[in-house]
Automatic annotation (TrEMBL):
Protein name per UniProt: Predicted membrane protein
Organism this protein belongs to: Microbulbifer marinus
Keyword Transmembrane helix attributed: yes
Spans through the membrane: 22-47, 77-99, 111-132, 144-164, 176-199, 214-235, 247-273
Source species, domain of life: Bacteria
Keywords tagged on the record: Membrane, Transmembrane, Transmembrane helix
Amino acid sequence: MNDAVLGPTLLRPFDTSRAVRLAVTTWFGIAAIGHGIFLAYILAVFYPPIAQSGLHGLQGLEHLPAGFREGDTLGNLAAVAHVLLAAIVIGGGPLQLVPAVRRHAPSFHRWLGRSYLLAAVISSVGGLYMIWTRHSIGNLVNQITISIDGVLILVFAFLALRNVMAGRIAEHRRWALRLFMVASAVWFFRVALMGWATLTGGWGIDWESFTGPFVYALGVGQYLLPLAMLEWYFHCQKREAGHRAKLAFVSTLVPLTVFMAIGIFAATMGMWLPRI
Ligand code: HEM
């Protein structure tokens, strides 16, 4: 067998486009499981007290210090709407991204899409209201970094909607994926925080005041890193994307996925399960 035949096969032992697809599908599968666990937590912890006591339902919840204020009906309404609609954002986001759902149940995809968009918008307006009118954990840096996420959600929701209404489906898909990344940033935050605490013992985190270099970095990293990875993925999907770019993408996504899996486990065991 001569080198001309053997060479390319040896130099390129596997298809890098397939590797990208495999890495992204694995990442998505694990992220979807993690979203499912957070959804179960939201349904179990917030729905029963709200169903029982309405606007007073979030009163006295230790892990939700900004959830209830006596006499502040508008703020309590914002908090209740925020956690109720969080279920649609966290549960609906991954479902919207499953190609089989889009293909086999297009009307369900449209209805869930509208609900998801509305829930994300109301949830972030409620979140913005709470963060600037009530004292929550952290300081001004935390307030600003999460507010940027709230504004990004509103902007990306508008762009996803405008493009689908104009029939620009490829653009719509890109903005909808960006919206998913920023609407799920609060999930990335919890998972990365607990994963980091497990691996480093909590370096850069002051748990008392909920401040510190890692908390600040994660404040912006919760949406900037997922958005950066998404843009890189878009690049890898282009015809002109080289094997090196794809290989570098896979080599970055795989360790991030392992870290995410550790974080999901840590958040489930250390944060969500104990509160149920
Ligand atoms: C749309 C995506 C969002 C989802 C799915 C979401 C979800 C949640 C959930 C489940 C909680 C309850 C806390 C917990 O048990 O983990 C919560 C609390 C809260 N969220 Fe969000 N959130 C989102 C966006 C935002 C944004 C953009 C802001 C601010 C700009 C925000 C501000 C808050 C505040 C202030 C609390 C109360 C924290 C406290 O009581 O100290 N959220 N959120």
